[in-house]
C-alpha cells in the first residue's frame, strides 16, 4: 500500500486518509519529505541564473510539501490521540524536523543566494514573503560562523528532545494523578451526570469500583467548585499541584531546557531567551513586557487579597485555604449574585451551544453556513467534520471538532491547521479545534460549564482566523502571526458568549426547553468582575514564572527548580501558598512543550487589542454583517501578509488603547 502522505490527498480539501495512517506511515513520510525537500533546495542552489524572487524565494516557499503534510497531520493526531505507537516515534519525528530546519536556515549558500535578490523590485505579499524569510534565516543563526552553527545544531536537537520528553512525561503524570474516591459520599455536590462519568472513568482505568476524577491541565480543577467536602477538595487540589514532583523528571527537563535556551540565545546575539523570542513578537522589548506584568500584578493581587478576605469571612476562617477558594467563590456567586454554576450546566448543552451559538454567530457576522460530513476517514470516532460555505454558497474549507477528553489526549484546548489557505498551492483551509470536555455516559447529553462554553467560542475564533485566511503563501497564512498577536482573534470571539442575540438562541435547558432566564443572564453579567482578582493573579503568576525561566542569563543552572519557582513568584509579590500559578513548572506544557516559551504573557498582551475591539463592535452596532465583514477583511483574512499591528490600526482607525482592558478586569486603578 502506498503511503497516503507521500502524495497530495484526493479526498475533499486534501483531507488526510487517517484510516490508512499509523506511526510507521508518519515516520516514513517525514523521512521521505526531508529527502525530497533537500533535492528541491539543491535545484535552487544549482540554478546558474541570477537570483530572483521567482527562482529562489518562490521555490523555497513551495518546497517540502510532503514534510509539511506529514508533520501537520502527525502532530494533529499526536496531541489529540497520542497512543503508545504514536508516542514511540515522537522524539524521532521531532528530531528529524528540528535537524531539517537547521539544514535549511543554517545553509550559508542558500542564505547568500536569497540576499542577492533585489527586494526593491518586489511589492505586496511577494515583498512580505521575502523579508519574513530573510528574517527567519537571520534569527535562526544563518550569519554565524561554522563552529557556532555546529553548536547551534546541537542545542536545537537537545531542546527538541527534551521538549518531547517533557510533553510525554507531563501527559503521563496528569493521567497518573487522577484522583480515586472510594465512596459516592465523598463526591457530595456533584450532579448525577458527573458522578456517572467518574464511575465510568474508574472502570476504564481498570478499577473494579470507586470514582475517578481525571485532571485537566491547569492547577485549579473545575470539580473543586462543586465538591462539598473540604477533604475531597483538598485531595484533588494536592494531587493536581503535585504533578511531576514524584520523580522530579519534568522539573529536571524544564531546568535543562531553560539553560540550553539561554545558551542558544547568547549564541544568536541576544541577552536572554526572552530577548530572542521578542525579535518575532509585537512587544517592543523585554522591559515593556516586564513593566506591563508588574503594573497588572500590583492591581490584580490587590483585588485578589480583597476577594480572599471576603471568602474567609464566608467560610468563617481567618484565612481561606487554596483548595477552598473555588468552592467559596461559587458560594459568593450563589449568595451575592444568585448564581449556581452547576445549575447553569443544563442550559449549555454541547450540540446547542455549537450549532445555535458558535456556528449561528458566525452566520450572523460573516454569512457562513455549515454542513456536517460523515464521509471522511477519522483518527478517532469522536472527531467530527463540517464543510464551511461563504454567504454566496462558495466552499470555504473544512472545520473539524474533537471535543471530548480521553487519556490519550493532551490536556487543554487548541487549534491546528491541517491545511492552510494558500492560493499559490491551490489549498483551501482545513482547521481543527480540540477540547477536553468530559464525555457523558451513553444516552446522556454533554453539558458544559460556562467556562467550557467560553472555550468553545475562544477556539472557534482561532478557527475563523485560519478559515478566513486569504493570501498567496502558506507560511504567511492564518495564524502564522507573532505569538503575542495570535490570541487576539480568539479572544474577540468570546465577546459573543453573552451577547443578547446569541445567548438567547443557544442557552436553552436541554430537558425542559426553557430558555435561560433573563434575570440569570443579567446576574452572569453583573458577576463578571467577581473572581477577576483570582483569575488575573493566577494567570499573571504563570506569566511571571515563564518570564523568570526565560530571562535567565546564559550559564545559569537552576539546581532547585521548586525553590527557583517559589522565589520568582515571591519577588513579584505573589502568594503561591494562597494562589498558585495557573501552571507550575512541572506541568507548564505551554512553555516547555508547545512553543509559548517567553510568550505566555501574550494572552494579556493580545487582550489589550481584544478589549479595544470589543468596544469598537459595541460602538458600531454589535452583531452585524457590516461589522463582521470589516473585521474579516482587515484582520482575520490578512494573516501575516502585512504587519499585524498595521492591520489592527487600519481596522480600528487608531492604535489600541489599554483602558478597555483595565475596565474589563477591574483594574481601572492600575
Helix and strand topology:
Blueprint: H1 23-46, H2 53-62, H3 65-80, H4 84-88, H5 90-105, H6 108-115, H7 124-140, H8 146-176, E1 179-181, H9 192-204, E2 211-213, H10 230-241, H11 249-267, H12 273-278, H13 286-315, H14 325-335, H15 341-344, H16 350-366, E3 369-373, E4 384-389, E5 395-404, E6 414-419, E7 430-437, H17 450-467, H18 483-486, H19 488-493, H20 500-506, H21 518-526, H22 532-550, H23 561-571, H24 589-592, H25 602-619, H26 625-636, H27 644-652, H28 659-664
Parallel strand pairs: 5-7
Antiparallel strand pairs: 1-2, 3-4, 4-5, 6-7
Helix pairs in contact: 1-2, 1-3, 1-5, 5-8, 8-11, 13-14, 13-22, 16-17, 16-20, 26-27
Mind explaining what this structure looks like?
By secondary structure, the protein is of the alpha+beta class. Helix content is 54%, strand content 6%. Among the domains are: 139 residues, Up-down Bundle (Glutathione S-transferase Yfyf (Class Pi), Chain A, domain 2), CATH 1.20.1050; 65 residues, no CATH class; 160 residues, Neurolysin, domain 3 (Orthogonal Bundle). The strands form 2 sheets. Strands 3-4-5-7-6 form a 5-stranded mixed beta sheet, sandwiched between helices. A two-stranded antiparallel sheet has the order 1-2. Strand 4 and strand 5 form a beta hairpin. The model has no long low-confidence stretch (mean pLDDT 95).
Amino acid at each position: 500500500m502506498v503511503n497516503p502522505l507521500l502524495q497530495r490527498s484526493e479526498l475533499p480539501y486534501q483531507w488526510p486518509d487517517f484510516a490508512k495512517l499509523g506511526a510507521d506511515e508518519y515516520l516514513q513520510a517525514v523521512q521521505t519529505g526531508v529527502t525530497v525537500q533537500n533535492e528541491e533546495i539543491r535545484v535552487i542552489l544549482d540554478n546558474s541564473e541570477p537570483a530572483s524572487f521567482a527562482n529562489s524565494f518562490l521555490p523555497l516557499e513551495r518546497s517540502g510539501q510532503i514534510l509539511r503534510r506529514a508533520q501537520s497531520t502527525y502532530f494533529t493526531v499526536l496531541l489529540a490521540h497520542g497512543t503508545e505507537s504514536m508516542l514511540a516515534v515522537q522524539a524521532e519525528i521531532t528530531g528529524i524536523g528540528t535537524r531539517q530546519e537547521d539544514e535549511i536556515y543554517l545553509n550559508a549558500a542558500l542564505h547568500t543566494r536569497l540576499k542577492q535578490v533585489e527586494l526593491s523590485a518586489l511589492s505586496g505579499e511577494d515583498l512580505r514573503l521575502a523579508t519574513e524569510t530573510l528574517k527567519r534565516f537571520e534569527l535562526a543563526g544563518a550569519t554565524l560562523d561554522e563552529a557556532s552553527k555546529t553548536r547551534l545544531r546541537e542545542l536545537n536537537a537537545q531542546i527538541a528532545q527534551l521538549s518531547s520528553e517533557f510533553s510525554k512525561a507531563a501527559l503521563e503524570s496528569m493521567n497518573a494523578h487522577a484522583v480515586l474516591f472510594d465512596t459516592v459520599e465523598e463526591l457530595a455536590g456533584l450532579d448525577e451526570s458527573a458522578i456517572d462519568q467518574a464511575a465510568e472513568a474508574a472502570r476504564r482505568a481498570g478499577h473494579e469500583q470507586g470514582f475517578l476524577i481525571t485532571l485537566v491541565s491547569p492547577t485549579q480543577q473545575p470539580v473543586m467548585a462543586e465538591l462539598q467536602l473540604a477533604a475531597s477538595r483538598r485531595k484533588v487540589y494536592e494531587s493536581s499541584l503535585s504533578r511531576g514532583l514524584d520523580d522530579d523528571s519534568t522539573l529536571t527537563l524544564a531546568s535543562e531546557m531553560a539553560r540550553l535556551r539561554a545558551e542558544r540565545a547568547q549564541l544568536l546575539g541576544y541577552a536572554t531567551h526572552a530577548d530572542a523570542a521578542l525579535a518575532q513578537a509585537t512587544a517592543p522589548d523585554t522591559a515593556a513586557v516586564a513593566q506591563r506584568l508588574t503594573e497588572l500584578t500590583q492591581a490584580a493581587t490587590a483585588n485578589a487579597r480583597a476577594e480572599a478576605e471576603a471568602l474567609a469571612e464566608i467560610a468563617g476562617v481567618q484565612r481561606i485555604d487554596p483548595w477552598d477558594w473555588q468552592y467559596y467563590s461559587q458560594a459568593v456567586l450563589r449568595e451575592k449574585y444568585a448564581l449556581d454554576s452547576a445549575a447553569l450546566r443544563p442550559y449549555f448543552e454541547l450540540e446547542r451551544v455549537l450549532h445555535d451559538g458558535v456556528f449561528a454567530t458566525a452566520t450572523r457576522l460573516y454569512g457562513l453556513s455549515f454542513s456536517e460530513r460523515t464521509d471522511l476517514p477519522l483518527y478517532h470516532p469522536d472527531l467530527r467534520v463540517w464543510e464551511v460555505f461563504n454567504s454566496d454558497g462558495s466552499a470555504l474549507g473544512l472545520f473539524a471538532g474533537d471535543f471530548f477528553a480521553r487519556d490519550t489526549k493532551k490536556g487543554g484546548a487548541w487549534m491546528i491547521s491541517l491545511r492552510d489557505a494558500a492560493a499559490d498551492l491551490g489549498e483551501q483551509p482545513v482547521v481543527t479545534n480540540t477540547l477536553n470536555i468530559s464525555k457523558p455516559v451513553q444516552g446522556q447529553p454533554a453539558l458544559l460549564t460556562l467556562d467550557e462554553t467560553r472555550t468553545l467560542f475562544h477556539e472557534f475564533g482561532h478557527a475563523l482566523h485560519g478559515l478566513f485566511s486569504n493570501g498567496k503563501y502558506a507560511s504567511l497564512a492564518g495564524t502564522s502571526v507573532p505569538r503575542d498577536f495570535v490570541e487576539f482573534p480568539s479572544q474577540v470571539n468570546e465577546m459573543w458568549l453573552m451577547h443578547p442575540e446569541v445567548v438567547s438562541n443557544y442557552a436553552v435547558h436541554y430537558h425542559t426547553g426553557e430558555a435561560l432566564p433573563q434575570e440569570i443572564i443579567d446576574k452572569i453579567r453583573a458577576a463578571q468582575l467577581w473572581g477577576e482578582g483570582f483569575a488575573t493573579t493566577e494567570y499573571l503568576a504563570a506569566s511571571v514564572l515563564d518570564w523568570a525561566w526565560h530571562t535567565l542569563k546564559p550559564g545559569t543552572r537552576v539546581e532547585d527548580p521548586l525553590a527557583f519557582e517559589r522565589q520568582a513568584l515571591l519577588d513579584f509579590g505573589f502568594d503561591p501558598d494562597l494562589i498558585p500559578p495557573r501552571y507550575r513548572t512541572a506541568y507548564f506544557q505551554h512553555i516547555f512543550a508547545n512553543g509559548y516559551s517567553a510568550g505566555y504573557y501574550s494572552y494579556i498582551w493580545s487582550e489589550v487589542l481584544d478589549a479595544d475591539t470589543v468596544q469598537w463592535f459595541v460602538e458600531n452596532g454589535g452583531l452585524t454583517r457590516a461589522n463582521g465583514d470589516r473585521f474579516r477583511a482587515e484582520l482575520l483574512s490578512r494573516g501575516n501578509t502585512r504587519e499585524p499591528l498595521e492591520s489592527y490600526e487600519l481596522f480600528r482607525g487608531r492604535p489600541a488603547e489599554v483602558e478597555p482592558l483595565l475596565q474589563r478586569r477591574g483594574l481601572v486603578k492600575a
